[in-house]
From TrEMBL:
Classification via InterPro entries: TRAP_TAXI
Organism lineage string: Bacteria, Pseudomonadati, Pseudomonadota, Alphaproteobacteria, Rhodobacterales
Range of residues in the leader sequence: 1-21
Cited SUPFAM superfamilies: Periplasmic binding protein-like II (SSF53850)
Keywords per UniProt: Signal
Coiled coil stretches, renumbered: none
Name the UniProt record assigns to this protein: TAXI family TRAP transporter solute-binding subunit
A Pfam short name: NMT1_3
Keyword Signal: yes
Keyword Signal assigned: yes
Organism from which the protein derives: Paracoccus rhizosphaerae
Length: 348
């Protein structure tokens, strides 16, 4: 499937699903974020944001997904879905095709940036006899499921580099790993912020498999060159040169003066924005390691920040926290008399 056809299918899906978004207006508005697979970085970032919201007495449902394309679709059409994590190359190619294709232009209308996040490394786990990216020619390569950012990135990279595998298989990374280990695949792509749980929590034999270096001038001109530090994974003792793509938190341009669904969603977006700004140090300390690499000023070109996000970042904005303050323990009568006497003598 070509990139244009993939984006057109996305656009048609948005049009077909418009009634679903409208249905959310008649329900109690909840908050949710579209993330990724159970072993990916996106879902851990989503859980960190939910923890942040819970400190304010609110909740953010963390929804598993195929990845970037499904997440973009979810923000546009899924009821009670205010956020989705999306790869910046997905956004870039949507912008490219939007100028020539009205359906794609309609698909991206109303979608906004909430926050830029971090660089995601393109992991390609391969047999050790496959030494370079060019060696994927004629091999059996899994590129992720169709609605994932991994699928789009892998497809673009192979096309840009002129690499033609013997087979490109739409298999999720979590399913591809055992197939690689069984000899049914030669390599598979996985775009995820390191350290990715898939590699850190599974036994991978370094004598059979390695992360493929990606040193290709064409790809390095399109993507960000990156170095995966040695020891990031147990099977990977040495640094690996590869490329990366930025992850971005997307939202929708909810109207704060619109219907009740838009008003409530805008409040939720503003609340999370305010909490993220004031809690970024806590996220960097207690959340996924990728929070330490987040640059909140690195906005992808061609996209605007949501009005509701900017409202939440206003120093005067107060998030709608509903969690009651902890109750002060009540003194017994004897302790109360003691405190009064101490305060009278020493001052309190």
């Amino acid at each position: 499937m070509t990139m244009l056809k993939l984006l057109q299918r996305l656009a048609l899906g948005i049009c077909a699903g418009s009634a679903l978004a409208a249905a959310g207006q008649a329900q109690d508005t909840q908050m949710s974020i579209m993330t990724g697979s159970p072993t990916g970085t996106y879902i851990q970032i989503g859980r960190d944001l939910n923890n942040l919201m819970q400190q304010c007495g609110q909740s953010l449902e963390v929804v598993e997904s195929a990845g970037s394309l499904e997440n973009f679709l979810g923000v546009r059409q899924r009821s009670n879905t205010q956020f989705g994590i999306v790869q910046s190359d997905v956004l870039e190619y949507m912008q490219t095709f939007a100028s020539d294709d009205p359906a794609v232009a309609r698909a991206i209308a109303g979608v906004r940036i909430a926050f830029p996040l971090y660089e995601e490394e393109v992991h390609i786990l391969a047999r050790n006899d496959i030494a370079s990216f060019n060696d994927l020619t004629g091999k059996r390569v899994a590129i992720g499921v169709e609605d994932s950012g991994t699928f789009l990135t892998a497809s673009l990279m192979l096309s840009l580099a002129g690499i033609e595998p013997s087979e490109t298989l739409a298999i999720a990374p979590g399913d591809a790993l055992p197939q690689l280990q069984a000899g049914d695949l030669d390599a598979f792509f996985y775009v995820a912020g390191a350290p990715a749980t898939l590699y850190s929590e599974n036994e991978i034999d370094a004598e059979q498999f390695h992360l493929l270096p990606i040193q290709n001038e064409t790809l390095e001109a399109v993507y960000t060159p990156a170095t995966l530090a040695g020891g990031t994974y147990d099977f990977q003792p040495d640094p690996v040169e590869l490329v990366a793509v930025k992850a971005v938190l997307m939202t929708y341009e909810f109207d704060p003066r619109g219907n009740t669904y838009h008003q409530a969603s805008c409040r939720g977006v503003s609340d999370l924005s305010s909490l993220l700004l004031t809690g970024i140090d806590t996220l960097r300390t207690d959340g996924h390691a990728k929070w330490q690499a987040v640059d909140l000023t690195d906005i992808p070109p061609g996209w605007d920040i949501s009005t509701c996000v900017n409202r939440g970042l206003d120093p005067e904005y107060q998030p709608n926290c509903t969690q009651p303050a902890p109750e002060t323990p009540q003194d017994s009568e004897a302790n109360a008399v003691y405190r009064r006497n101490i305060c009278a003598a020493l001052g309190c």
